[in-house]
């Protein structure tokens, strides 16, 4: 059933492309002060009690952003793998107004920083799976190769999502416990978790496309052998009839 393999490959491509779109939106959130990137962030905190900090601050993968009167981020210079480490010199450079749980620990710095390279790796495998997905519509090998690459992308995306979710949920709780209103960025986390679901679906669909091709190939082979067997059994009688009735 070639059409089934094409359909599975096409659906796998669709979900892979959807996952990539969501991953790139999350990854580039805060990189530019333009819509929709200035609405994507991981955590928003009331930092009015911190000297030199804006009234509201937002953390992204690239920087710490202030919030304007329209509720949009206003970000400055970009720094790759910008860490979630409020008291450090990279962020506020003070311990005044900072919850004590952030002071004297590298937990938040390391967890947020390590998620960045995992995200890069997830993007690499997802992009590769997208390109090999075109082969998935034609060949069984392409289906399994695309599935393997999508599984790798899913693995690293899962690691990234879990790290980011854990560190910023913990940070939100610490700020709220210190009477500093904090909330998670709904768009960023919705994009990350939805991207995981899309990658999982693409993995399954690519595998199904490969399995359908294998089943059809095996069936065709058995039919060929069966026909060959019967034809070899009939051929002597046919030749005999030709000799009796020339």
TrEMBL record:
InterPro entries: SUR7/Rim9-like_fungi
Organism: Aspergillus campestris (strain IBT 28561)
Region annotation (Disordered) ranges: 216-246
CC terms in the record's Gene Ontology section: cell cortex; membrane raft; plasma membrane
Transmembrane intervals: 6-28, 116-136, 148-169, 190-212
Keyword set includes Transmembrane helix: yes
Keyword Transmembrane belongs to the record: yes
Keywords: Membrane, Transmembrane, Transmembrane helix
Native organism taxonomy: Eukaryota, Fungi, Dikarya, Ascomycota, Pezizomycotina
Listed name of the protein: Actin cortical patch protein Sur7
Listed Pfam families: SUR7
Gene Ontology biological-process annotations: cortical actin cytoskeleton organization; endocytosis; fungal-type cell wall organization; septin cytoskeleton organization
